[in-house]
Amino acid sequence: MYADILSSVLNDWVDELSGDALIDFAQVCRVQMVESAGESAAVALAAELSYDRALLKVCEAHGIGISIRRFSRPGEERSRLEQELIDMGVDLVSSPRTDGEG
What are phi and psi of 83, to 5 degrees? Predict the structure, then answer.
């Protein structure tokens, strides 16, 4: 079910972010997802969907093959994709960059 919901919100992506702006956005979404853990189920779900959508866009931009169906286990797929990105030198897990860094 989560994979179906993710698929529908992925199709709604209208932002034209790319490069560092896309990575920065994904990092912010990840922080929001982590911080939403104690919130209501709806808030936590929205944060997960936002991050996963950004994560998939970053993966696509870096030539990493993705499959929405693998998000039937979102935590596992999220970790796998994050590790693939880290192996390529793109770290979404670390804190977002702030002005003057990076």
Answer: -65, -40
Residue in the structure block whose two tokens are 């702006």: 21
**Which token pair is 71?**
């998000």
pLDDT digits (tens, 9 = 90+) for 66-102: 999 999 999 999 999 999 999 999 999 986 655 444 4
Q: Rounded CA gap, 85 and 47, in Å?
A: 20
- What residue segments make up the domains of the chain, in order of their start? 1-9+40-90
What is residue 97's three-state secondary structure? coil
Whole-prediction pTM: 0.87
Helices and strands (H and E) in the chain: how many: 4, 0
Which DSSP string do the residues of 35-70 spell out, in sequence order? HGGGS-HHHHHHHHHHHHHHHHHHHHHTT----GGG
Q: What sign for the dihedral angle of Cα 28, 33, 36, 40? A: positive
- In order of 25, 50, 52, 95, the CA distances from 5 in angstroms are 21, 11, 11, 27
- Coil, helix or strand at residue 73: coil
